[in-house]
Amino acid sequence: MDFNPHQFQTPPADIYPTRLRGGEQLHARKDPVLWSDWHEGAPIERAEAEQYRENGYLVRRDVFSQDELALLVETSATLRDDPGGIRREDLITEPESDAVRTVFRLDEHSPLFARLAKDSRLAGVAQFLLGDEVYLHQSRLNYKPGFTGKEFYWHSDFETWHAEDGMPRMRAVSASVLLTDNSEFNGPLMLVPGSQEVFVACAGETPDANHEESLKKQQVGVPQPQTIDRLVRENGLDAATGPTGTVIFFDCNTLHGSNGNITPDPRSNAFFVYNAVSNRVTAPYAAPQPRPDFLANRVPDRIAPVTGEIRKG
To answer: What number does CATH give the domain 18-309?
Structure first.
């Protein structure tokens, strides 16, 4: 179906223009990182809130029980090894093989992960960080098999979500639940602390159906090597490692990526992207048409806040 710009809400003013013809530009962030003031009833400690504000991410351990983790790991393995019931568009394979790289719309393919997405240990923290009710913009399982798992190149999620999905402001957060041990060797998430404060407006126009290539290897909407070099030299580089069950919350504009995995140990993570209800997507800012629903939730009855069903445990 052809894209009709009138079927989506008119985008607010573009305060983060990107995909520029004149070359890459760097701009100061115009939005808060932490949208709530810390208080005694907050779901995280004061020091954790400050760490998130300063670094653009937060690593939390000992969030789940061993029984919960065992069930999550078992379910994720089943989805990977027996994907027959998963819609074809929701499955992304490795660039040079049929090995499953990503399963999108995770909350639709697994009742267990649907419950996890609404759990206060994830959604409640996201609500606090964003200072608003939240809904799932995207959910997915990422696999990085041993020996052959490919890298994810450096990028800011917000740049793509703004340009191709129509996300107006930096008011979204990803929660990554580690379903295997993530060590410094098997391609863990790497982040540039402090990079959330700089918006890299990338060069180049968005091709039609860019997502079909970018999901395997992103080449449009990524910073130039000299920009990555500068930000890493100024801010440092962290690897978000931890045992199975670790949860990593990171701001939508924090620069991140991961190396390939040539170790025998696979890496598997579940991702839930929470967007503020007040920040729901509109028409794309720098793309000829919006990405499909499995990448950017636009279904009206699925944009209802998830916080109404949050539970602990």
So the answer is: 2.60.120.620
